[in-house]
Structures are given as structure tokens and as C-alpha cells.
């Protein structure tokens, strides 16, 4: 197994250090019986941040070149009774589920672990399993890009990193701006509210999340679906 140089020392026991996994958007890379397996490890806080700023989607897009891309989410979420994360109170269980479902929709496997030590055991077990000849991985698709960075599909997944943006709103937002998202916000909050399903509150949240420039419309009243 090849281990990315950025991984903590505890993972060094799994194999040699190499930057090769990073070329595929992974932290760990090894050959299974039926192709290459790449694993991207995300601690919960990094999962949240990278889903919101698009970094995770860029990494997962690279992983589509692998036969078997895997996302390993490390840590315990700990939810309140109202479904709010006790790790990050700005995150809800519904948002996390939506992000994870979007990941699975692209054929990326999801596994979890309790912590770094458990992740080591998960990775060891996955490597052993992937090297067995009796399972049906041979029936998996061939690797190849399905949503390249900058494509409509990539932007739709990126948008779902924002709280309150599901698949339908993300598609409407991307399609309204002709298959892209104005990351530097060359549009105003008022223009964002013209997107179907985006009200004033949601437009304000989107603008603030990217922290750029001034806006001509900071009204917090929501006349549409926020």
C-alpha cells in the first residue's frame, strides 16, 4: 500500500510513503485483484470543510480514474436530539446524509471508522478483502471520468456542500448560470434570488459563505423558498 506523505505517522506502518495516491485524489493506494483501490480519508471536521469549499469534490473527481474509489469518514458525529452535529453546530444530519448520498451516487464506496487507530485496521482489512479472488469486483465498471472538475455535474455536487442546497436547488442554480457557479460572485444577491427556489435568505447565506465583495441586497426577509 502506498501512503500519502501528508498522512499522520500512525499510517506509515501500512506501507511506503509516496505522492502517487494524491495524483488520484487519494490518501492510500493499492492494487486489488480486480484493479486499483484508492481511499480518501476525511476526519469529520475536514469532511465538513472540504465538502463546503469544494476540495473534497475535486479529490473525488480524480478518484473516478480508479477501479474502486473509497471515502473513509473518520470519527463520531454525535448528534443532538434535533439532528444538529455536536462536532459542528452549523451542520445538520440531513445535510450530511445528502452529501454522503451524492458521493454514493457517483459509485464511490463509503466506510467509516472511530478514529485513526481504527482507520488503520479498516485499511488493512480492505486491502486483504480487495486482494481476494472470490468476490464479484470483476463486474464493476471500468475506471474513467464521469464528472470532471468544472463540468455541470461537478458544480452540482459542489453546490450541495452549502447548507440548505439539495439536488434540485443545486441543479437550478448551476443551470441558471449556464452550467457553472460564479465562485467569485460576479453577480449580486438580488440576481441570485432570481434562481428558482433561491430566496433572499438563501442568497444571503450563499454570498456570505464565499465572503466576497459587497452586495446591493442584504434584506433578510425571505419572499421565496430560502
Describe this structure in words.
This protein is of the alpha/beta class and 226 residues long. It folds into two domains: 2-139, Rossmann fold, CATH 3.40.50; 152-210, Orthogonal Bundle (DNA polymerase, domain 1). Helix content is 37%, strand content 13%. The protein has nine helices and six strands, in the order E-E-H-E-E-H-H-E-H-E-H-H-H-H-H. It has helices at 20-23, 44-53, 55-63, 93-105, 116-130, 152-159, 167-176, 189-192, 200-210; strands spanning 2-3, 16-17, 28-32, 35-43, 68-74, 109-113. It has a six-stranded mixed sheet with strand order 2-1-3-4-5-6, with helices on both faces. Helix 4 (93-105) links the parallel strand 5 and strand 6. Mean pLDDT is 80; it is low at 135-141 and 212-226.
Strand-helix topology:
Blueprint: E1 2-3, E2 16-17, H1 20-23, E3 28-32, E4 35-43, H2 44-53, H3 55-63, E5 68-74, H4 93-105, E6 109-113, H5 116-130, H6 152-159, H7 167-176, H8 189-192, H9 200-210
Parallel strand pairs: 1-2, 4-5, 5-6
Antiparallel strand pairs: 1-3, 3-4
Helix pairs in contact: 6-7
Q: Tell me the number of helical segments per DSSP (H or I, 4 or more residues long).
A: 9
What CATH first level of the largest domain would be assigned?
A: Alpha Beta
Q: Which structural class matches the secondary elements?
A: alpha/beta
Low-confidence stretches: 135-141, 212-226
Order of helices and strands: EEHEEHHEHEHHHHH
The main pleated sheet reads as:
6 strands, mixed
Total number of beta strands: 6
Q: In what range is the share of β-strand residues?
A: 5-15%
The dominant shape is globular
Distance linking N and C termini? 46 Å
Order of neighbouring strands in the sheet with most strands: 2-1-3-4-5-6
CATH topology of the largest domain: Rossmann fold
Count of structural domains: 2
Radius of gyration: 19 Å
Integer average pLDDT? 80
CATH architecture descriptor name of the largest domain? 3-Layer(aba) Sandwich
Instruction: Specify the helix fraction band.
Output: 25-40%
Amino acid at each position: 500500500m502506498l501512503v500519502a506523505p501528508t498522512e499522520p505517522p500512525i499510517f506509515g506502518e501500512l506501507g511506503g510513503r509516496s505522492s502517487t495516491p494524491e495524483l488520484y485524489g487519494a490518501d492510500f493506494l493499492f492494487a486489488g485483484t480486480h484493479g486499483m483501490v484508492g481511499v480518501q480519508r476525511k476526519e469529520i471536521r475536514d469532511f465538513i470543510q472540504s465538502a463546503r469549499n469544494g476540495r473534497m469534490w475535486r479529490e473525488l473527481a480524480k478518484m473516478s480514474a480508479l477501479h474502486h474509489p473509497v471515502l473513509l469518514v473518520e470519527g463520531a458525529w454525535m448528534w443532538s436530539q434535533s439532528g444538529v452535529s455536536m462536532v459542528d453546530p452549523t451542520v445538520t444530519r440531513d445535510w450530511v446524509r445528502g452529501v454522503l448520498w451524492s458521493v454514493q451516487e457517483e459509485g464511490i464506496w463509503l466506510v467509516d471508522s472511530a478514529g485513526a487507530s481504527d482507520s488503520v485496521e479498516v485499511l488493512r482489512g480492505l486491502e486483504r478483502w480487495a486482494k481476494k479472488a472470490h468476490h464479484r469486483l470483476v463486474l464493476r465498471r471500468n475506471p474513467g471520468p464521469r464528472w470532471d472538475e468544472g463540468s455541470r455535474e461537478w458544480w452540482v455536487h459542489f453546490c450541495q456542500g452549502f447548507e440548505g442546497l439539495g439536488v434540485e436547488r443545486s441543479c437550478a442554480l448551476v443551470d441558471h448560470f449556464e452550467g457553472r457557479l460564479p465562485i467569485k460572485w460576479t453577480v449580486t444577491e438580488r440576481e441570485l434570488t432570481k434562481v428558482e427556489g433561491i430566496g433572499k435568505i438563501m442568497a444571503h447565506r450563499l454570498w456570505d459563505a464565499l465572503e466576497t465583495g459587497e452586495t446591493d441586497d442584504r434584506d433578510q426577509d425571505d419572499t421565496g423558498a430560502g
